[in-house]
Amino acid sequence: MYCKKIMIVQTIRRTATCTTQLNYQKAEPSIKLKTHTDSTGVCSPHLSLQLELQSQSMAASTAVTANYVLKPPPYALDALEPHMSKQTLEFHWGKHHRAYVDNLKKQVLGTELEGKPLDHIINKTYNNGDLLPAFNNAAQAWNHEFFWESMKPNGGGKPSGELLALLERDFTSYEKFYEEFNAAAATQFGAGWAWLAYANDKLKVVKTPNAVNPLVLGSFPLLTIDVWEHAYYLDFQNRRPDYIKTFMNNLVSWEAVSARLEAAKTASSSSA
Ligand SMILES: [Fe+2]
Fold first, then answer.
1. Which of 30, 69, 203, 231 could cross-link to 170 by cystine, CB 3.0-4.6 Å?
2. How far, in Å, is the centroid of ligand 1 from the Cα of 87?
3. How far does residue 244's CA lie from ligand 1's centre (Å)?
4. CB-side exposure of 88: number of CA atoms within 13 Å?
5. Residues sharing a CB contact under 8 Å with residue 222, sequence separation 6 or more, in sequence order
């Protein structure tokens, strides 16, 4: 499956402003991480962080473990208010996401998976749907990082450019895509995720249960919304449809989605 060849190159430089680049490539990552923690040991998005993943050979990357760091969202924890509260970010990122990362570290310690890149662990432990123990924590660690970077302050609304053109081509209109994405997120029974994904030169909406993501389904993920109750209960209680509309209307970073689309197209064409 070609998705096994996917890796992510992300370069984040966060000082007064932040830019994110994400590319899917057929290589393995190495990571240099410089970060700072506050007095409680929490990585603070207010402080400078530099994370670089660069393509290198498989042999050179086997000792990499920094994929298992709890990477902060690319904005301050109160930056999405009033649409997503600081309290939600403190619990969702600071407690839930942290637990997935911490548990993964313990789970792979001393196993053949220790030191392997996160996407490798995800594909290996998906095990064709017969999940191995580390899958849920590995996939949830990846999914949450992808989710934080799917949002930005003052986001949402309608995309533009090539992304809009492809949405109109594959869903007939942006409004139809909006309906389909919202419906997938609203109807995912119990915990899970809804995604915009790219495969075979087409965009599609998929929903997945628990920790499953498009990486194990042969697609390139472009956008996601977390529909686990912990994602919205503090702000919306049981009103999941209101959370989804708020995400689409006020939080989506279409710039991130467009960058992911470009990376997916490049990786897709080079693996053809
Ligand atoms: Fe979550």
1. 203
2. 14
3. 14
4. 21
5. 195, 196, 197, 198, 203, 257, 260, 261, 264
